[in-house]
Amino acid sequence: MIKGNFDIPLDFLSAKAPPLIGVDICSSSVKIVELSELPKKAGYTVERYAIEPLPKDAVSDGNINNLEAVAEGLQRAWKRMGTRIKNVSLALPAAAVITKKILLPGGLREEDLEYQVEAEANQYIPFAIEEVNLDFQVIGPAPGNDAEVEVLLAASRKANVEDRVAAAQSAGLKAVVMDVETYAAEMAFDQICAQLPDGAVDQCVALVDVGANVMNLNVLRNGQSVYARDQQIGGGQLTQMIQNAFGLSAEEAEAGKRNGGLPENYEHDVLAPFLENVASEVARAIHLFFSSTQFTEVNYIVLAGGCAALSGLDDAVATRTQVKTLIANPFARMTLSGRIKPRQLQVDAPSLIIACGLALRRFDPS
Ligand SMILES: Nc1ncnc2c1ncn2[C@@H]1O[C@H](COP(=O)(O)OP(=O)(O)OP(=O)(O)O)[C@@H](O)[C@H]1O
Ligand SMILES: [Mg+2]
Whose Cα sits closest to atom 20 in ligand 1? Predict the structure, then answer.
C-alpha cells in the first residue's frame, strides 16, 4: 500500500509491479537487467541484460549531470537488449533519500493522516517541503501502544527523482518504480545469501561494492542492512595508475585492465599495490563498523561492483581481513536464457547487483 499525493510516488514500499526491467544509472555506465519467473514460482530466468558505458562525469555522486548522455546511453542499452518491455524500475542513491519511522495516533482518516505526515516530515527533512517527494506507509500498530500506529516516511529531493524519470522518458521508457539503491541491493542480496552455508542466518555479511569511484560497505544481517558507509576509492584509480605507469590514454588503460595486453610488470607494479590498497580500506571500514555498532564479527565478505572482476582481489581482501571472501553473483541460482553468454555474465554479475534487485521488483517479493 502506498500513499503519495505527489507527482511521482517513491514507491519502493509497494509490492507488486507490472512487467518491468531494472535500470541502474551509475557513474560509469547504465545497466539493465530483465528477469522472468519460472512457473509455480520455481525460480527466475535471466532473459537479457546490457551494460552501456557513459561518458565521464555524465553521472557523479548519484546526480545526473548530463541528461542527454544518460538518455542516449539508456536508449542504446535498451535497443541492444532487444526487449519489448518499456516499464523500468529505477533507484535513487541512498544519500538522496531520508527514511524515518514516526508514530501517529491510530484511527486517523485518510486526509488527516496525510496532513499529519506532512507536518511531522517537516521536522526531519532538511530542505523545503516543496522540494521533496514525500511518501509514507503505515506499518501497523505501534509496539506496546495500541492507540498509535507506526508510519514509515520516505522523502527525496524532487530533482533527483525527476532527472531519472526524465532520462527514462527521453529514452522512450517509462519509470514505474522508484526504489532506493540500498533496498535494491538487499533484494538481490537474498539471492546471494541463499548460496552461503545455512543461508547465513543470524550472521553478519559484508557486501563490499567497489565501483569506479566509490567503495560502499553494506553490512547485512538476515537480509537487512545494519550499517552502510562509502569511501572514495575505486577502479578509476587503477585506470589512472595504468595511464601514469605506461603513458596510455584512459580508453587504452580501461581496455587493458579488462582484456589484458598490458606490459609484463603490470601485475606486480600496478595491480598488486592497488589490490593491497583496496584490501586495507576494506579492513579499515570493517574496524569502523565494529567500533560504531554492537557487532564484533563479520562472517563473510561478498565482493561486488566492477572491481570484483579483478583477479586476486578476493585473495587480497581475505588475507588482510581474515574473513572468508567470495565474489557476488546474484544470478548463480537462476537459469539463463539461450541469449546469455554464461562466461560473460560471470564477469559482469558482481556489478549487476542493483540492476538485478530492481529487476526482481517485477515479482511479488512475498
Ligand atoms: N572485467 C573487469 N575487469 C576489471 N575492471 C573492471 C571490469 N569491469 C568493470 N571494471 C571496472 O569497474 C569499475 C566500474 O564498476 P561499476 O560498474 O561497479 O561502477 P559504478 O557503479 O559505475 O561506479 P560507482 O559505484 O563508483 O558509482 C570501473 O573502474 C571499471 O574499469
Ligand atoms: Mg556502483
Answer: 211
| Single pTM value for the model | 0.88
Contact 185 CB / ligand 1 (< 6 Å): no
Please tell me whether residues 273 and 318 are part of one structural domain.
yes
CATH code at 151?
3.30.1490.300
Q: What is the pLDDT of residue 364?
A: 64
Which atom of ligand 1 lies nearest, measured to the CA of 238? Answer: 29
AA letter at 157:
R
Query: In this structure, what CATH number is given to the domain that contains residue 323?
Result: 3.30.420.40
Ligand 1 in reach of 277 Cβ (< 6 A): no
C-alpha distances (whole Å) from 54 to each of 50, 218, 235, 361 are 13, 25, 15, 25
Same domain, residue pair 264 and 339: no
The response to whether residue 218 sits with its C-beta less than 6 Å from ligand 1 reads no
State the 10-residue block means of pLDDT for the chain, 366 residues long.
38 64 96 95 95 94 94 98 96 85 88 87 77 86 88 86 96 93 90 90 96 94 90 96 97 94 96 98 97 96 96 97 97 96 96 97 71
Distance, CA 305 to ligand 2 centroid (Å)?
6
Q: Are residues 122 and 220 in the same domain?
A: no
Cell numbers for 94, please give them: 541512498
Please tell me the total count of domains within the chain: 3
Q: How many CB atoms lie within 10 A of CB 343?
A: 8
Three-class secondary structure of residue 211 per DSSP:
coil
